[in-house]
Design a protein that fits this description.
The complex is a heterodimer of chains A (261) and B (435).
Chain A: H1 10-16, E1 22-25, H2 27-32, H3 34-49, E2 54-55, H4 66-70, H5 74-90, E3 95-98, H6 101-110, E4 119-122, H7 123-132, E5 147-150, H8 164-171, E6 176-177, H9 208-218, E7 223-226, H10 229-241, E8 249-252, H11 253-258
Parallel strand pairs in A: 1-2, 1-3, 3-4, 5-6, 5-7, 7-8
Helix pairs in contact in A: 7-8, 9-10
Chain B: H1 4-31, H2 43-55, H3 64-93, H4 99-102, H5 105-134, H6 149-173, H7 176-181, H8 188-191, H9 200-224, H10 232-241, H11 255-265, H12 296-304, H13 316-319, H14 326-346, H15 364-368, H16 375-379, H17 386-400, H18 406-418
Classes of the chains: A alpha/beta (261), B mainly alpha (435).
The complex binds iron/sulfur cluster (2 copies).
């Protein structure tokens, strides 16, 4: 992918005397992880297409602290949170959108008590809004008739009860949305949450992402749609472990939409 | 000797209630060993939760089979207790079926008729429950933590209920006068023929026997509760009332940490400042090492848990063979709390260090296997939160003992040094734009 993206940076806008309508919180995975960077680019493509007046913090962004907090390091989390809040409050940020349910959850629910009060959207919620307002037009041709299943990220679904926005977006693609046996509030974790992403699992009979991939395979879906960079990695690995590469694709909803412009 | 029955009855009743009150007192004392947190905000939402989840069994029916069977037992249990009121009055005053004197026959018959049907349904439901546990062997009743006492406890409760319901029906079936009334004996009329060969006097003795065993059985059951997972029939109500109302993804921000972090980050702060007057603060432990470091709601949760295993059967770690089981977290917390309670009782109200803590029950391996996915919290029919105990124990391990797994220490070091969980340079945060 080498299309030129317009990515305004907060500090530059401040110098130019302009303010964005919304801050795009890229997150550490979205900034550094090779697979997640593609999701970030797809989302920005959509923002550009819809002419959204946004900005990123760039090098002023730092880890949200989610992984540290779930690992039990409350000190490190609060240090990160308070540093980020200082930066965002300096820029008078009011609205935030992010592709990462972990950043979404912690900024939305855990930052306010520490002085960071913002309106926070997951990218699927934000994209749904753009679609509704007619700012973004999706053609239903690219994936027409394909079988797609959606894997609920724990930190979007159970943690914040957002179940419909991602599903509405998927339906707008003219695809056949099939549910796994465990879905929405009964959804099964991909295995990455609670800082598991950064360590080997404890001894057991199988890996969680493989079990979840089996759930997806039961639906005979050709595409597993995700809404979280960690879920994406876990499901991609699961598909590999089950020798389903070439049969099942794992794509973020932002990617599905960006391919359907 | 005319009043000997009444006196005996009153003595048994008083003893039963006295022991029960004593148990409740220890229970409340133990729960109060937990740390104070405020769960009295937003009363409207709390009452609503209690009405929907405890009273209305809203989360039970997510699993329709066990949910519906449970509603039968629950409704039966509550309504049949109206009959216990009559038994108590009869027992105290030496009357017989006092309500027949107060209520018209048709009303009395209607009530007892309904109780009989309920008793029969409860009996059927309880037998199905027993079959599910012992014959079909549904997996969640056979996990590791369900060996020994927890398994016998589960069956004991079922036997209790079978016996109590049978006694109630036999009592009605052998009550000559009640059968002659022929109203309300919807079920018992079919049991009566079994006893038809007996003399009236023998029949009367059987009736009295069933009557006494029934009420004594109820009192024993009442006192069995405290030693059993069956406490949920009482505690489900406060437990759902005091449950967390925030989004499930929102974990608490430790206020002690906030204080310290704010101090560290405030350039004007005086590091040698004296603490405010009178604030002889004890050094707070971060996270939870033992039950007394948990909140009282965690401890209430532990006593409320009915060991149904719905949490564990949805836990991704447990489903993939890891040692972690959210139900075991609750059972261990309760068992340790009981031990701490007994320790206090044995030492004149002061806890004497026994060299043990919650980590003697719950291993680090279990604590680190959790993905914080909230499936257990969502699945629990009475809104118990095993995850918050796991997180508090992680906090203790990391902040007090620096005992995180090495990979997590790496991750945290990266966050500290470069603001990302991976070893990338903060200055490269925008590289994705041009890739
Ligand atoms: S939050 Fe932890 S204990 Fe609860 S279901 Fe998920 S992995 Fe299991
Ligand atoms: S915590 Fe809740 S779901 Fe789990 S065993 Fe106890 S009562 Fe059942």
């Amino acid at each position: 992918m080498s299309e030129a993206l317009k990515v305004p940076i907060m500090a530059d806008m401040m110098t130019a005397g302009t303010t964005p309508d919304i801050l795009f919180w890229v997150g550490s995975a979205g900034s550094f992880d090779d697979r997640a960077k593609k999701i970030t680019r797809a989302f920005v493509k959509l923002l550009n297409k819809a002419n959204v007046n946004f900005a990123v913090l760039g090098t002023e962004e730092s880890s949200s602290g989610d992984a540290a907090k779930r690992a039990g390091n409350e000190f490190l989390f609060q240090m990160q949170a308070i540093t980020n809040i200082e930066v965002m409050n300096m820029y008078e940020v009011k609205k935030i959108v992010t592709c990462c349910p972990h950043s979404y959850n912690t900024i939305k629910n855990e930052y306010p008590e520490l002085g960071g009060k913002y309106e926070v959207y997951h990218h699927t919620e934000f994209l749904q809004q753009l679609l509704k307002e007619g700012k973004l037009k999706i053609s239903g041709d690219t994936f027409k008739g394909k079988k797609v299943t959606f894997h609920d990220p724990c930190y979007l679904g159970r943690a914040n009860e957002v179940y419909e926005a991602p599903r509405e977006l998927i339906k707008s693609l003219g695809v056949d949305l099939v549910e796994m046996k465990r879905n929405k509030l009964n959804s099964l974790c991909c295995g990455a949450g609670g800082a598991q992403m950064f360590k080997e699992p404890e001894p057991g009979s199988m890996d969680i992402n493989v079990l979840r991939t089996e759930d997806a395979m039961e639906t005979s879906a050709e595409i597993i749609a995700t809404g979280c960079p960690f879920c994406n990695t876990m499901m991609t690995d699961g598909v590999k472990a089950k020798d389903q590469e070439g049969k099942i694709e794992v794509l973020d909803i932002a990617e599905l939409l960006a391919k359907s412009l | 000797m005319k009043y000997i029955d009444n006196i005996l009855f009153i003595a048994i009743l008083t003893a039963g209630l006295w022991f029960f009150a004593k148990n409740i007192k220890s229970l409340v004392r133990n729960i109060k060993l937990g740390k104070d947190i405020d769960r009295t905000d937003n009363k409207a939402a709390r009452w609503k939760n209690m009405a929907k989840i405890a009273l209305g069994q809203g989360k039970m029916v997510r699993r329709p089979v066990s949910g519906l069977l449970h509603i039968v037992v629950y409704v039966g249990f509550i309504l049949i207790n109206i009959e216990v009121l009559e038994i108590v009055i009869d027992g105290v005053f030496g009357t017989h079926r006092i309500f027949t004197k107060i209520l018209p026959d048709s009303v009395y018959g209607f009530l007892i008729g309904n109780f009989e049907v309920l008793a029969f349904l409860v009996l059927v439901a309880v037998i199905i429950f027993w079959i599910r546990r012992n014959v079909i062997k549904i997996a969640r009743f056979w996990n590791n933590e369900m060996k020994g006492w927890p398994r016998s406890d589960g069956n004991m409760i079922l036997y209790f209920e079978m016996v109590l319901m049978t006694l109630f029906l036999v009592m009605n079936a052998t009550d000559i006068h009640f059968q002659e009334m022929n109203t309300g004996n919807v079920i018992s009329q079919y049991i009566a023929p079994i006893f038809s060969g007996l003399e009236d006097s023998t029949l009367h003795m059987v009736e009295r026997g069933a009557w006494w065993l029934h009420i004594v059985g109820i009192l024993i059951f009442l006192n069995y509760l405290y030693y059993s997972k069956h406490l949920h029939i009482l505690l489900a109500f406060p437990n759902t009332f005091f449950a967390n109302l925030n989004p499930k993804g929102q974990f608490t921000n430790d206020a002690n940490v906030t204080k310290e972090v704010m101090m560290m980050m405030d350039p004007d702060a005086d590091p040698y400042a004296m603490p405010a007057e009178g604030a002889e603060e004890e050094v707070a432990t971060f996270g939870a090492k033992d039950v007394t470091d948990l909140s009282w709601v965690n401890l209430l949760n532990a006593y409320t848990c009915t060991e149904c295993g719905r949490c564990t059967s949805e836990c991704p770690a447990n489903l993939t063979g890891k040692k972690l089981s959210p139900r075991k977290i609750m059972m261990d917390t309760r068992d340790r709390l009981e031990e701490v309670g007994k320790n206090i009782d044995a030492n004149n109200g002061e806890f004497k260090d026994d060299g043990k803590n919650l980590f003697d029950w719950i291993t680090k391996e279990e604590i680190w296997a959790c993905t914080s996915c909230n499936a257990c919290v969502e699945a629990c029919p009475v809104n118990i939160d095993p995850l918050s105990i796991i997180m508090d124990m992680r906090r203790y391990l990391v902040m007090e003992e620096s005992a995180a797994p090495a990979e997590l220490n790496n991750m945290m070091q990266n966050v500290e040094n470069n603001g990302a969980p991976w070893p990338y340079n903060q200055m490269d945060r925008l590289k994705w734009v041009d890739e």
